[in-house]
Design goal:
Elements lengths: L1 E3 L3 E14 L7 E15 L3 H5 L6 E3 L12 E13 L10 E12 L4 E10 L9 E14 L7 E10 L4 E9 L4 E11 L6 E12 L1 E2 L3 E4 L1
Parallel strand pairs: 7-8, 7-11
Antiparallel strand pairs: 1-14, 2-3, 2-12, 3-5, 4-6, 5-6, 6-7, 8-9, 9-10, 10-13, 10-14, 11-12
Length: 218
Amino acid sequence: MRTLSPLAIRIAVAVTLVLAARSPLVAQTVTEWSAEQRYAISVHVNDAALQKLMPPGWTIAPSTAPGNPGGNINVSFIDRMIVFDGQGKQYRAGSSRYIVFTVPARNAEGVSNNIIISGLSPEGPGAYGVNLTATTSRVQKSATTQAEENSKVEERWEFAADSGDRVDLQLAYRRAPATKSKAETKIRSAVRPDFTRTYRIEQAADVGIVDRKVRRLR
């Protein structure tokens, strides 16, 4: 068992529009729309070990943000409550819970992207071809609040695959006032670096005060 101390955790409720293009010469098309809640935890792991997972021509670029110095891998716990495909039809069951690991990186030309290196998802490898198929993808949540105070939340997220890989997150936090924003980010696959997706996001996000740590079990 290994314990990772989070450098920063961001809680967001977001509406996400996903656009995909297989090469710069192909116009982007909408492939997915979703409403979801995300927990993004940034941690630092061994740089040399992480670099071995990067596709050729890409180098890890650890965060220099004041609240997250040195963070070189982002762990996102995602609860997708509503999911539609590019034609506005319900995708699969219409909801899903999964986890993804992304690394901030740049190439020799100075282009910066987030590289997705792995994940656990009931949907299997996914568009990026990197996820393990999750045989367990469970989340439990409870909240306590009164009047106009920010709620205190306790959660447990569990993900497991037949390979024996397992991620277990248990945390308690007090919500902070949320900041509404719009964002656009491009994600690239570590195993197919020419494949990218662009995410256009409208979200309300806050940095929670975390009482517990993250455990990754294998």
